[in-house]
Amino acid sequence: MRRLSEGSAFDIDSLDEDFLWNAYMIDPLIKFRSRLSQHEKVTLDDSRMLTSAIRGFVLTVTITAASSPLKGLKSNYPSSLTVLSRLSCRRAGTRFNSRGIDDDGYVANFVESETVLWHPSGICFSYVQVRGSVPIFWEQATGLLPNQQKIQITRSPEATQSAFDKHFEQLEFTYGTVHILNLLSATKPAEIELTTRYQHHIHRSPLNQIIGSGGTSENRLIQSQFDFHAETKGPGGYEAASMVRRLIQDRADSFAYLLYYAADRLGTSGSLPAKSSQWESGVILQQEGVFRTNCLDCLDRTNLIQTIISQMAIELFLSHRNERATADFWMRHSSLWADNGDALSKIYAGTGALKSSFTRHGKMSLAGAIADARKSATRMYINNFADKGRQNTIDTLLVSNLRFGFPAAELICGRGV
């Protein structure tokens, strides 16, 4: 991906402010640092006074040598599997207070998720995908009845296209070709309206045009519709969600994945060399595009489908090596993604994700169904009675209300929110 070509060394000057939740807090220190000499900058950085804060989820699990899918790489050391999700601090907020897109092209609940598989031989696999609210101007009111909250599109197509194009141009610049995977219902009127407008803007996007690239033609914005509820309401239940594979398999194969090699020159890859100069490293393969998945909240349906996409990417990597993962490995993978879904859902909606029982265990039990009902009721309470205070806290942290003219000092003191 393009962002990897810029170098892998940590550099405080190149922090991505789209995911930097304490950008306003450390801004005076950043400005102070810019006036220092190079030696003084290094001293300040080594002091760890400058701390970058992200919000989202990260968890690493250990894969024993016996359960490692990379059997061809002989090692007695364990591997590791990581899922890392970064929630954007742009258009940040809670479920019913932050929907859709803004004029700068930022969308609500935008999350970049990365699956990383590291083997002690020095091989590192990585795969990135994103999620985010339907990128048009829309709102949804809270309500005491589930699935009865009214959706309202607040701007005309003409007033929306510019922001829509900004959003996808930024995604294309960062990740390459973008494949939209829309999970909205094809039977619920409100979701149909969102999908219709979504498609309207996709068709008018400059990225949706066939362009010449080295003598070949390429479309940089692709879309697929997968009505999650319709596909999973049959006897197969959520297992039918795997049918999404047939929609995206070809594109997943063409996107590939990031494959990185790093080992020390002494040949003892299972241990870290004392000096960085002893490392030999390099990118073997680059990921060439990204799946952008959405449902209505970009939580429950989205997380289940992203789990499947992550599995497809790992399967592709292993197939290139003529290897297969064990059942124990896939159980750990599913558990990681279930934890990821719960963490992101708690941030946006106040509870863990629905359908996490299926994501975690591969089947929906009675206990899982009861847990989902309890979560739905809890969400209803939180969204109606607690989210306003949570939203004010987020706005204060990010100084979002400065755009309304409130001085920063008043915000920090709790006034003007």
Task: Give short descriptive properties of this protein.
nine-stranded mixed beta sheet, two-stranded antiparallel ribbon, 38% helix, disordered N terminus
Question: How does this model look, in words?
Answer:
It contains twelve helices and 13 strands. The chain has 417 residues and is of the alpha+beta class. Strands 1, 2, 3, 4, 7, 10, 11, 12 and 13 form a nine-stranded mixed sheet that branches. The protein is globular and about 55 Å long.
Low-confidence stretches: 1-9, 265-277, 401-417
Radius of gyration: 22 Å
How many strands?
13
Write down the overall geometry.
globular
Measure the end-to-end span.
40 Å
Question: What are the secondary-structure elements, in order, as H or E?
Answer: HHEEEEEEHEHEEEHHEEEHHHHHH
Q: By helix and strand content, what is the structural category? A: alpha+beta
How much β-strand is present in the residues? 15-25%
The quaternary state of the protein chains shown equals single chain
- How many helical elements? 12
- Sheet bearing the most strands, described? 9 strands, mixed
Q: Give the % helix.
A: 25-40%
Rounded mean pLDDT is: 87
What would a concise description of this structure say?
The protein is α+β, with helices and mostly antiparallel strands. The chain is built from 12 helices and 13 strands.
Summarize the topology.
Elements: H1 23-34, H2 38-46, E1 56-63, E2 79-87, E3 111-118, E4 123-131, E5 138-140, E6 151-153, H3 157-175, E7 177-182, H4 189-203, E8 211-213, E9 216-218, E10 221-225, H5 228-232, H6 244-255, E11 258-264, E12 279-285, E13 289-294, H7 300-320, H8 327-348, H9 356-361, H10 366-385, H11 387-398, H12 408-412
Parallel strand pairs: 4-13, 7-10, 7-13
Antiparallel strand pairs: 1-2, 2-3, 3-4, 4-11, 5-6, 8-9, 11-12
Helix pairs in contact: 6-7, 7-8
